[in-house]
Amino acid sequence: MNDMLKKISVSQLREGMYIHDLKCDWLNHPFVLNSFKLKTDTEIRKIIAAGITLVEIDTEKGLDLLVEEPQLEKSPLTKVVDNQPKKFTALEEMGKAKVAFSMAGEFITDMMSNAKMGQHIELEQVNPVINKLSQSILRNPNALLGLSRIRSMDVYTFEHSVSFSVLMMAFAKSMGLSEKIICEVGIGGLLHDIGKTLTPDEILNKPGKLTPEEFVIMKQHVVDSRKILEKTVGLSKVSMDIAAQHHEKYDGNGYPLGLKGGQISLYGQMAAIVDVYDALTADRCYHEGKEPSEVLKLLVKWGGTHFNPRLVREFIQSVGIYPAGSLVMLNNHHLAKVIDINDNMLKPVVEVFLNAKTRSYIPRKLIDLSKLDTIKILKVESHAKWNVVF
């Protein structure tokens, strides 16, 4: 066996690596050869877009993994626990996901009310909530990810915390992190905005751009979150990093400390991506949320400045090119909702419900696009355009 060959996730690819094997049929990828040296980030995006998840690199002919990126299946973070839940389809998981999501929403509402009155947060209260969410994520993350798309602008702060937590856990699961870490990032996500309980409501809910003075006050919520959470006995550093660093930027232009690159922990870098993704896809009193596919393009654009570009690719891997809950138009003129993500991210499982040509409802039906050659996604559609509420 050639010791120079390594099987890695596509999220770990970088320019200068030599692809030894794309691990897919020649007809299913856009390159002339199966083996070649990566010269541009565009080539990496093409590999991801083709639905490829694992590749084999030759470190003798090109760059090796970065030091901070342990090999797949060999990192202590990728240890899988023996009692990992059985896998379910997104539809099979939906009932339990709804219970977990509702439980988390009630918890964060009560917790923020209590924090406003100066009460400390007890991890014993958080753990049962995170346990239900994490178990659902491990069975199938797309059930919860789909639910997190259903948002109400008047309770944004509460729902953002739950959605943030769900996205962080799905992100960690996709990266192969341990169940312990998945739970810790979930806790960090749920508590990351606790400092906003001290932010004046007129600034927190202002339906317009903040003045420079108001923005200074708004930024204080990160510092306040840290102060509140420092009083929480047993809170892990992973959870704290998420709360303290989710507004730091990869190029050093974030806040509150202006940390740069490796000064920001892995979990802080992940949280920065999740925070922007969730904020931009949510409806607010001052703007209509963007479609997930549009926001993913922005994340890629901001890779290298706002965000770690490697982690942006990993995040896209976790939510899919067409995230659960997205509305898509098929080439047969049927409108469909994305239900579950396949290994080939271009071909998810969808539920058709409307004939767009006749604008008439049709019997709801699940279609696994990965098993069909004739039906494809043409484009992403806007929920607002079609006035669709699920």
UniProtKB/TrEMBL annotation:
Signal peptide: none annotated. It holds the Pfam family HD_5. Residues 133-331 form the HD-GYP domain. NCBIfam families: HDIG. PANTHER family: CYCLIC DI-GMP PHOSPHODIESTERASE PA4108, CYCLIC DI-GMP PHOSPHODIESTERASE PA4108-RELATED. This is Cyclic di-GMP phosphodiesterase. It comes from Psychromonas marina.
